[in-house]
Write a structure and sequence with these properties.
Distance between the termini: 9 Å
Mean pLDDT: 96
Helix content: 55-70%
Low-confidence stretches: none
Largest sheet: none
Number of helices: 5
Order of helices and strands: HHHHH
Amino acid sequence: MSSFRQNNGDDYPEAAGKHLDDAQALLTAGRYDGAGYHAGYVVECALKTLLQADGVLQKGHDLSRLSSEVTRLAAGGSPHTARYQPDPPPAILYAVPPAGWKETMRYLAAGVLNQGQAGRWLKEAERVYTQSVQQMRMDGVIR
């Protein structure tokens, strides 16, 4: 449990780490759709962590919208968002797979993502997590 845990139990930094571990394990196991699915949640939870650090609680899964809100806050001089914003912004779009990630991809038949696509999404999720949540932990923003 992190210091960002909300009253309803949501804990975006912890969830980002959990999904990162799951995505890595699923990619190794050759479960590419599952790896990509969890990689998208890493990005979502990392962005929501940044927003929460600045007192903004966002609902929904739209990675493009969340990324835009983080960019807007960072450009406005918000200290946490500006310091920990992934640079460049996340490259995983909110779109129908395989063009992008959507939380509804869990309902699609197996084989939507191949190893290369899942690997790229995981690499991007790792970058976003490292530049935001992991760095916030190292700096003591998240305990």
